[in-house]
Amino acid sequence: MSYIIPIGPYHPALEEPVHAKLITDGEMITDAEVSIGYNHRGIEKLATERNFIQTIILVERVCGICSHSHAFNYAQAVEAIAGMNVPKRGQYIRVIMAELERLHSHYLWLGIACHIIGHDSLFMHIWNDREIVMDILEEISGNRVNYGMVTIGGSRRDIDEEKAQHILQMLEKLESSLLRIRDILLADKTVAMRTKGVGVLTTEDAIRIGAIGPHARASNVAVDVRIDAPYSCYDEFEFKKCTWDSCDVFARVVVRVLESVESISIIRQALANLPKGPIHLGVKLPKVPAGEYMTRHEAPRGQLVTKVVTDGGECNKRVSIHVPTFKNAPTLTAMLKGNTVADAGLIVASIDPCFSCMDR
Predict the structure, then answer these.
(1) Of 88, 219, 235, 326, which sits most exposed with the smallest number of CB within 10 A?
(2) What does the pLDDT read at residue 14?
(3) What is the pLDDT of residue 257?
């Protein structure tokens, strides 16, 4: 028999509001409709009433997991309008924080994925290692989330030699454990049974719909802003795009593990070659002329786009934030078809959604 099964928008299994209407034939999903827009916080409007330093604090709260990405991208746009050249040391520190944030995000997602498929021992192991990343972030910034590391013209806090050495030691421990987690995820039967062939998004569909970030790379679409359109100092580091061709939930697991290894490598390179000199141009309120600029940043979930318009005053005239989930959410309909109702929650989670982030 055919049934319509609603999931959300407010559901005990969902951390954020989204509505999926599943059209089923018995246990199989024959079609699906996904609705968004249940949460609105007015952040873009509030940005027009804040000065440029205050806006950094505001945009950091678009998303708790990728708060640095929003501050990083916004600052780059304002700096471009004002013609500022960020000191190289400040750029390196921004990149270190961005890659630590990527590790934090990927570990969080991997743990949640294991929890959804019922592999709670691996979930706890992954989240235990995530604490290492959180400890590093706290050691650098003083905070576990919303790090406050960005100011217009550079970074707000430095990383001294002693702190750098301690971070390298913690990364050594993290990488050793990560390689074991990788081996378990690639070989574990429970993971394979729940993820292989589930929620397939073909390469053609990923390109047609416009998937981005790890979600696209897991469908063998090699897109990464850090390499395709390098910004800040990313062109000074050696790393590779991580893709996988099975196009299913398993591929999304593999890509995030591989990207975590690459992020550790980037952080090591940055700490080993941290330039001498200042970390910022000064922390006073900058004078920004009238203008507009759009910047792109490879956030943990994919390409983040920020456009800033100024009119020569102390506040933004317009701030527009286009987040990765907005591009990846439309792929859910294609991914849900042909799967069972039992897999629907895992498939929705596999894009690593942030619906509050999207409804900014």
Answers:
(1) 235
(2) 64
(3) 96
> Which pLDDT value is given to residue 16?
75
Q: Which residues contact 35 (CB under 8 A, 6 or more apart)?
A: 9, 18, 19, 20, 21
Those residues whose C-beta lies under 8 Å from the C-beta of residue 357, and which sit 6 or more positions away, are 62, 63, 66, 323, 325
User: What digits encode the pLDDT tens for the residues 108-126?
Assistant: 999 999 999 989 999 999 9
SS3 at position 208: helix
Do residues 146 and 70 lie in contact, with contact meaning Cβ atoms separated by under 8 Å?
Answer: no
* Tokens (6 digits) for 52: 């440029």
Encode 145-187 in three state secondary structure: CCCCCEECCEECCCCCHHHHHHHHHHHHHHHHHHHHHHHHHHH
| CA dihedral angle for residue 12, residue 15, residue 19, residue 25, rounded to 10 degrees | -60
Q: How far is CA 284 from the centre of its chain?
A: 29
- Residue 52 and residue 283: Cα distance in Å, rounded? 11
What is the residue-wise DSSP string for 116-138? HTT-HHHHHHHHHHHHHHHHHHH
pLDDT category at 315 given cuts 50, 70, 90 is: very high
DSSP lists the bridge partners of residue 6 as 21
Q: Would you say 89 and 278 are in contact if contact means Cβ atoms under 8 Å apart?
A: yes
